[in-house]
Amino acid sequence: MTPQIEISHVEKHYGAFHALKDIDLTIPKGSFVALVGPSGCGKSTLLRSIAGLESITSGDLRIAGERMNEMPPRKRDVAMVFQSYALYPHMNVLGNLTYSLRFKGVAKADAREKANRVASTIGLEKLLDRYPRELSGGQRQRVAMGRAIIREPKAFLFDEPLSNLDAALRVHMRMEVRALHDRLGATSVYVTHDQIEAMTMADHVVVMRDGRIEQQGSPLTLYDTPANRFVAGFIGSPAMNFVDGHGSEDGHSVRLDALPGAPVLPLDRRVEPGRPVVAGLRPEHLFSGGETQFSVPIRVVESTGSIAYYTTDTDPELMLVEQGRGKLRSGDSAALSIAPGDIHLFDPMTGLAL
Ligand code: ATP
């Protein structure tokens, strides 16, 4: 597949602050890529660098094969969609949609026809006469997207576009954005701090921390084979549990020293006997239905009806989840087991997956 955006060895310094460190990322045409990571990790800086709103200090940035390093934003042929919508308040929806075309000198009738087409693509046909203040949050977000679509850009760049919407609408809009991307055959780069949004929308997820890419890959690759403890803890909800332990004498199991009774769990690979490790146990893997391997007391129960969350009375605390209303109460003991293939191991010093 042709790369639509190619980022190689990109560095960004804001004065003494090193905001992007050796970023390499190839975005194929037609793909949906999410940039995700905690606040301040550099995801907006990377997106804004693609848009040309920030200059890069070194490295190369190409869009559709053309080097963009010094290209001004308006010549890059990309469209940004922000959470703040950035609609013109004094223009109705039609005016907002056609503004960029009119600015480029497209004839009024042609611009109008195009706006009608875009409006019907995103379900705004009946709202063309409304002003932004007369629209709901979701409708405004749709106008913002319509305004990007009408320009037929080489890529859509989304900067947390859904974070102002309430939870239910956010879930709905994330499907809409993804469906729209597919319908248009667009190339999209989507910044979010919400790993669930990233996992559900994107083909390719890029996890960033402190200006660096920690790991990139398909959502399930990141979930199944996190490269390090940071990615393991960031991807997945509720977050992975981490427990200190060490390799058993024969190297075929791990002893979890930090849990009551120091349970020994079989592995599907070998680990150096006696080697200190951090075991990563996902909450959803701890009731595997196998023979009980260890028991832990429950301290807190939180149930939504469809799923029960348990916090254990151990140090470290474990988070467990069970489908359904949940059978356990505070003070009960949870009988746990985990499949050998579901146990993740990390080096305690480097955090790298073993
Ligand atoms: P958030 O989710 O909070 O928006 P982010 O991952 O998008 O975070 P960026 O906005 O890319 O983070 O910022 C990355 C780092 O660069 C932050 O530590 C920020 O303080 C710093 N930074 C951003 N813009 C500037 C600037 N103009 N001058 C100096 N430092 C900046």
UniProtKB/TrEMBL annotation:
Residues 5-235 form the ABC transporter domain. SMART domains: AAA. It comes from the Bacteria. InterPro entries: AAA+_ATPase (IPR003593), ABC_transporter-like_ATP-bd (IPR003439), ABC_transporter-like_CS (IPR017871), ABC_transpr_MalK-like (IPR015855), ABC_transpr_MalK/UgpC-like (IPR047641), Mo/tungstate-bd_C_term_dom (IPR008995), NA-bd_OB-fold (IPR012340), OB_MalK-like (IPR040582). The keyword Nucleotide-binding applies. The keyword ATP-binding applies. Keywords: ATP-binding, Nucleotide-binding, Transport. GO terms for molecular function: ABC-type transporter activity; ATP binding; ATP hydrolysis activity. One of its GO terms (cellular component) is ATP-binding cassette (ABC) transporter complex, substrate-binding subunit-containing. GO terms for biological process: carbohydrate transport. Belongs to the ABC transporter superfamily. NCBIfam families: PRK11650.1. This is Carbohydrate ABC transporter ATP-binding protein, CUT1 family. The lineage of its organism: Bacteria, Pseudomonadati, Pseudomonadota, Alphaproteobacteria, Rhodobacterales.
